[in-house]
Known about the structure:
The protein is of the alpha+beta class. It has helices at residues 8-14, 16-21, 37-50, 130-136; strands at 25-29, 52-57, 62-67, 87-88, 95-104, 107-116, 121-128. It has one domain (8-68, 85-136): Core binding factor, beta subunit (Polyomavirus Enhancer Binding Protein 2, Chain: A, Beta Barrel), CATH 2.40.250. The protein is built from four helices and seven strands. A seven-stranded antiparallel β-sheet has the order 3-2-1-7-6-5-4. The longest helix has 14 residues, at 37-50. GO terms for molecular function: sequence-specific DNA binding; transcription coactivator activity. Pfam families: CBF_beta.
Amino acid sequence: MPRVVPDQRSKFDNEEFFRKLSRECEVKYTGYRDRPLEERQMRFQSACREGRSDLAFVATGTNLSLQFLPPTFHTEGQRPAPTRDYVDFEREQGKVHLKAPMILNGVCVIWRGWVDLQRLDGMACLEFDEERARLVA
C-alpha cells in the first residue's frame, strides 16, 4: 500500500495544489496526440472501457494516468472491466463520466469528472476520499 501523510485532510484543505484541483476545471485527454482525432477518440473510449486513461488538468498542466477501478482492485490475475460507478457512457449522451480513486502526494482522493467523446476534453476535480483515508491511515 502506498504511503499516506499523517493528516491527509489538512494537507488536502491547505495545500495550494489540492485547493486548485478541488474546484472543477478543464481536463483534456493526452493520449496519442500525434494521431488523427478519429483514432484518438476510438483509443480513448477503448481505454476507458478497459478502466484506464491519461488525462491532464489544463490549468496546472497536471498529467495523470488514471485507473477507473475500485481502490481494492489488485493487479494479480485478469483485469476486471470497470463498473458504471467508475465509467458511465450512459448518463449523458456524447460524454463519459469517470471516477478514479487514488493516493496523490500522500492524500487519498477521487478524480471525478466527464469528458466529451468528440472533443476529448471536459471538466473534473479532485475530492478528498474520507472513507479511504480512514482505512489506510
